[in-house]
Design a protein that fits this description.
This protein has about 210 residues and is mainly α. The chain is built from 7 helices and no strands. The two termini are about 35 Å apart.
């Protein structure tokens, strides 16, 4: 594995872990707000506990497995993240604003993690979670714009985008620094070649430059 591919893998693992943590906490906060509004519901309490346990267990798994298996395991967890997000959206009765924010965060995460190729499995898992919980729960659709329920997913999306922006900025700066160092080394090599060429005959210099 090259240095660049290792860095790409590390970026994927970081973004997916950050996505899981932020969306998980935002999901728990949204479910608590929804439960306060709707009254006590054993299913919602069970879902909150399940999300919390999932965050903790997945973090432990990612930290304990070897580097060779991390990418494969994290891709599996990424699909599970999307599936649980679909369940979460149905659990809040498909409330449009928080649901849209959660789904947009998922799309953004998929695009920066694997582009169009990542969108397909993530959205399939999301759809599966939606369909499965709709069949089980039969949610009552709410088309009200509840701002209190939307605060947590909005903050999660904002933090995620800002973190990605900072990482991208640092990455670009690192590449520009490497480019400047490379250009400086090229200039130094040209100067050395120029000084060295003074002591070589034209025939020998031509042979060296041609690689013969």
């Amino acid at each position: 594995m090259t240095v660049e591919s290792t860095k790409e893998t590390e970026r994927f693992l970081f973004h997916q872990s950050l996505f899981r943590f932020l969306v998980g906490l935002a999901g728990i906060t949204t479910l608590v707000a929804f439960q306060t509004k709707q009254g006590y519901d054993f299913f919602l309490v069970a879902l909150i506990l399940s999300i919390l346990l999932y965050i903790l267990i997945s973090h432990f798994i990612c930290g304990s497995i070897g580097k060779s298996n991390k990418v494969r395991v994290n891709r599996t967890l990424a699909s599970l993240d999307a599936f649980l997000l679909g369940c979460l959206v149905v659990a809040i009765d498909l409330n449009p604003l928080p649901s849209l924010l959660f789904i947009l965060t998922l799309q953004f995460n998929a695009l920066i993690s694997g582009g169009i190729k990542r969108l397909i499995p993530d959205n399939l898992a999301l759809g599966l979670g939606l369909i499965l919980l709709i069949l089980i729960q039969h949610p009552q659709l709410h088309f009200s714009a509840d701002l209190k329920m939307s605060i947590a997913p909005l903050i999660a999306l904002g933090i995620y985008i800002c973190t990605y922006g900072v990482n991208s900025f640092n990455q670009v700066n690192g590449l520009l620094t490497k480019q400047k160092e490379t250009e400086k080394q090229l200039v130094q090599m040209k100067l050395r070649n120029y000084h060295l060429s003074k002591y070589l005959s034209p025939t020998l210099r031509k042979a060296i430059l041609s690689g013969k």
